[in-house]
Write a structure and sequence with these properties.
Shape: globular
Strand content: 15-25%
Structural class: alpha/beta
Number of domains: 1
CATH topology: TIM Barrel
Distance between the termini: 26 Å
CATH superfamily: Aldolase class I
Bound molecules: ligand LLZGTKA7
CATH class: Alpha Beta
CATH architecture: Alpha-Beta Barrel
Largest sheet: 8 strands, parallel, barrel
Length: 236
């Protein structure tokens, strides 16, 4: 059975043992899983293959950003792992994005190819520091348009940009949103945040959630509560 939940749990663990202790308690129908830089650097592709073998939809969040040839080769290697979604930084520019698009199109498994716009940890002062003028919103809008023109399947953005992007981009364009914080949970290093229900109401396709689940005293209860809040919002 396919997963109908929008929740992608970020497996930001230091090692495979800790990650699999969480994974053993969930099923592929219940949630999707994200493997990011920490876990991938520690454990490599074999853990990704194991999650794919267990039938999970895996988002391999390595945010490739390099010259077009290198990114294309990295995307092809990522696609060959059989993952469901991969990503690149849109700030790599259209040549890099199109090279990634062609590499994925030529792969056997053809994962969704998503472009990271502006990291959800960044506010306007952080953008100005690196020479990007304006607010996160206008930067995200510009980069999301570039991603769409370059043939990507969607973008990573904060939930705060979703309702604006929904008015500008094709209906089937995927809006993948980290920066999700249930009411009362710590923001940590995230700057542009929203609750799971508000993000879905705004039009997010997927909610990427890490610490509010994985660092909770009881991760399964935290996941349950998020799921229940989403179900209640749908039924009300
Ligand atoms: O702009 C981005 C892109 C990726 N992420 C990743 O999402 C999760 C969020 O984890 P939390 O613990 O829920 O903050 C994490 O793996 C990031 O690498 C992001 O946060 N923002």
């Amino acid at each position: 059975m396919a997963c109908t939940s929008p929740v992608i749990v970020a497996l930001d663990y230091a090692n495979a043992r800790d990650a699999l202790a969480f994974v053993d308690k969930v099923s592929p129908e219940r949630c999707r899983l994200k493997v990011g830089k920490e876990l991938f650097t520690a454990e490599g592709p074999e853990l990704v293959r194991e999650l794919v073998r267990r039938d999970f939809d895996v988002f391999l969040d390595l945010k490739f950003h390099d010259i077009p040839n290198t990114v294309a080769k990295a995307c092809a290697a990522a696609a060959d792992l059989g993952v469901w979604m991969i990503n690149v930084h849109t700030l790599g520019g259209s040549k890099m994005l199109q090279a990634a698009r062609e590499a994925v199109a030529g792969s056997a498994s053809q994962p969704l190819l998503i472009g990271v716009t502006i990291l959800t940890s960044m506010g306007s002062a952080d953008l100005h520091e690196v020479g990007l003028p304006g607010e996160p919103m206008e930067n995200v809008e510009r980069l999301a348009a570039l991603a769409a023109q370059s043939g990507l399947d969607g973008v990573v953005c904060s939930p705060q940009e979703v309702s604006r992007l929904r008015q500008q981009l094709p209906e089937n364009f995927q809006l993948v949103t980290p920066g999700i914080r249930p009411a009362g949970s710590a923001g940590g290093d995230q700057t542009r945040i929203m609750t799971p229900v508000d993000a879905m109401t705004a039009g997010s396709s997927y909610l990427v959630i890490g610490r509010p689940i994985t660092q909770a005293d009881d991760p399964m209860q935290a996941l349950d509560e998020i799921e229940q809040s989403l179900q209640l919002a749908v039924s009300s």
